[in-house]
Design goal:
Blueprint (H helix, E strand, L loop, with lengths): L18 E3 L10 H8 L10 H11 L6 E4 L1 H12 L5 E5 L4 H8 L4 E5 L17 E5 L11 H5 L7 E5 L22 E6 L1 H4 L7 E5 L1 H9 L8 H10 L2 H25 L5 E2 L7 E5 L5 H7 L2 E5 L10 E5 L3 H17 L2
Parallel strand pairs: 1-11, 3-4, 3-5, 5-6, 6-7
Antiparallel strand pairs: 2-8, 7-8, 9-10, 10-12, 11-12
Helix pairs in contact: 1-8, 2-8, 3-4, 3-7, 9-11
């Protein structure tokens, strides 16, 4: 891959006038009730995290000192790179590239464990000497959900396993999440409110882990890292009402994704099987399809910025059924044009 693309993200693949399938944030969000809570935030006072930390801790059954709020999941990876003295970091690819970027900026050596299609994970791929491992679950961009026991098998004395669960709430009941594990020693679980609630511009996420590791990250975090509106979002989205809403969306997402994949299977493309997030990863088997889709009015996420993929791969957000159908029709035309 082109290393210059490592810091590339889906928002750079959007284009004016095109249907945005490059950014994987739930459309139509945030809802009015959430906007109302965010708009009511006290902007005159310094942000006080205590209530928001308590809400996240209660949601996941954790102690308060096992929760760290962050300015989005991306900040969590910067804190990881600065606060954890890793001598041999392994990043499991293809996945979200910010963890590797953060580690390299911090001067940490990085080894890549690159999975081949269908991107199932074997813990034996990680060297025993690795003292930091980063893995997504479900993974961006593959949409693969690894069994929790497989992720737990990475635990070793002296090793920290960072699990990017930014898309965990795309999965009904959040199966395979480690967020509620009684013992998180050796693990950091990174979560985000961006995807489900449409809060990319607010920058809000959090990290779960054992108290000692959370303290290490907090020690390198700047003062007042999370704004008052973002703290209101934490409180609002941790309520039973919000969790029910997220669960219903996850169920509807699963139906829309299954219908989309069924139609895609009729085309001359390979769709990564068992997709569980809010997007699917497609091997179009030929370069240039992304640019052709632009001509048909659709913006999709390029694959070549992810280690292990090339320009034949595209990541496509799952939207409403009518949008999905129009995309598949456009893709079919693009494939015919490229013959």
């Amino acid at each position: 891959m082109n290393e210059d693309l490592l810091a590339h993200h889906g928002d750079r693949d959007t284009m004016p006038g095109a249907v945005d399938l490059a950014v994987n944030v739930r459309p139509g969000m945030p809802p009015k009730w959430l906007r109302k809570r965010i708009d009511a935030a006290d902007l005159a006072s310094y942000p006080d995290q205590r209530d928001a930390v308590a809400a996240i801790a209660e949601r996941h059954g954790r102690r308060h000192d096992e929760v760290l709020l962050t300015a989005g999941a991306a900040e969590a990876f910067v804190l990881m790179a600065r606060g954890i003295n890793a001598h041999e970091a392994v990043v499991v690819h293809p996945q979200f590239t910010e963890p590797e970027v953060a580690l390299r900026v911090a001067g940490r050596p990085v080894h890549r464990a690159v999975l081949a299609p269908p991107f199932t994970f074997d813990p034996a791929l990680v060297p025993e000497t690795a003292d930091l491992v980063v893995i997504g679950n479900p993974t961006n961009p593959t949409s693969v959900l690894h069994p929790a026991d497989v992720v737990r098998a990475l635990r070793r004395p002296g090793r920290l396993v960072v699990v990017d669960e930014a898309f965990a709430d795309c999965v009904p009941e959040e199966t395979q999440s480690l967020a509620g594990d009684p013992d998180l020693h050796g693990f950091l679980v990174v979560r985000s409110l961006t995807k489900t609630w449409g809060l990319a511009g607010l920058r809000i996420g959090y990290v779960l882990g054992d108290a000692e590791t959370i303290a290490q990250l907090k020690a390198v975090q700047h003062a007042w890292p999370v704004s008052a509106p973002a703290l209101e979002a934490c409180l609002a989205t941790a309520t039973p009402r919000a969790l029910r809403d997220a669960h219903q969306w996850a169920l509807a997402l699963a139906d829309a994704r299954a219908a989309m994949v069924a139609v895609l299977s009729l085309l001359d493309v390979d769709v990564v099987p068992e997709a569980r997030a809010s997007f699917v990863l497609i091997n179009t088997k030929r370069p240039g399809i992304r640019e052709r889709l632009h001509e048909h009015g659709f913006a999709v996420r390029r694959g070549e910025s992810f280690p292990g993929l090339d320009e034949c791969w595209i990541r496509v957000a799952v939207r409403e059924p009518d949008v999905n159908e129009r995309f598949v029709t456009a893709l079919s035309h693009c494939l015919q044009e490229s013959r």
